[in-house]
Amino acid sequence: MSTRRRPAAPRSSSSGMTENEKKILGFVRSKQGMGATKYEITGGTSIQQALVTKATTSLKKSKLIKEVSNKGGKHFLAVEFEPCKELQGGDWYVDGALDVSMIEDLKEICVNILERLKQKVVTLEVICSCFQKASRDEYKLSRDQTKVILDNLVLDNVIMEVKSNRSSEHSALRIGEVCYKLIGKKSGGGEARDGAFASIPCGACPHIGLCTPDGAISPTTCVYYQKWLGI
Predict the structure, then answer these.
(1) Which residues, if any, are the signal sequence (predicted)?
(2) How confident is the model over 99-133, as pLDDT tens digits?
(3) pTM value?
(4) Tens-digit pLDDT profile for residues 71-105
(5) Contact (Cβ atoms closer than 8 angstroms) between residue 10 and residue 3
(6) Any domain includes 217
(7) Structural domain includes residue 223
């Protein structure tokens, strides 16, 4: 007995794509740099998930879409778009991975700025203006990025956040204005500071020996690390 073959899905005569592929490509393009997950594509196009899988595989093979992975799962983007910052995890992620080395470099630079200014207290705006004068573009932080670095140094017990009360060291500041000061040895107080590694979650994590960039335990997926970074 002969086996009846299932008819092939109709293809667009203009592009060689099936109607499902055209519909999915249009939907993914509409999302631009944010892209869309398979679940979002299914809901946004009303195409069954099995057919979405088949169509996205074909579109990837044709190099019309690409797949980007982040902590929220896999997103499909049209090839003409680059992943937006939200998809990559924010300012502190590169290709979906937390750039720990860059964060530590920026924290060290921030401490050096505070030491070099030789002021009792320094405002966020002053520190941000110093970062803006950096010779390397990746070190030219915005106000919000500078605040994240300062908040981490506060958590590290390296600096202290205080509010001006118009005392001698705050005489040039408005009452209640937020500012920062070094604490520990480098502030002149003689108090030893904890090492940076000891103050981050990794320093006390019992699973650090199992932590790898692509493993089940990794900095990319560590909720404690993300909470510590304020992201």
Answers:
(1) none
(2) 788 888 899 999 998 888 877 788 899 899 888 88
(3) 0.47
(4) 667 889 999 998 877 666 566 766 656 678 888 88
(5) no
(6) no
(7) no
Whole domain around residue 66: which residue ranges? Answer: 19-88
Q: Which two tokens stand for residue 110?
A: 């921030």
Q: What is the pLDDT of residues 29-65, one digit of tens each?
A: 998 988 898 989 999 999 999 999 999 999 999 999 9
- Could you tell me if 74 and 140 lie in one domain? no
SS (H, E, C) the chain: CCCCCCCCCCECCCCCCEHHHHHHHHHHHHCHHHCECHHHHHHHHCCCHHHHHHHHHHHHHCCCEEEEEECCEEEEEECCCCCCHHHHCCCCEECCEECHHHHHHHHHHHHHHHHHHCCCCEEHHHHHHHHHCCCCHHHCCCHHHHHHHHHHHHHCCCEEEEECCCCHHHCCCCCCCEEEEECCHHHCCCCCCCCHHHHCHHHHCCCHHHCCCCCCCCCCCCHHHHHHHCC
174 touches 168 (CB < 8 A):
no
Last-in-domain residue among 37, 54, 88: 88
How many CA within 13 A on the CB side of residue 153? 28
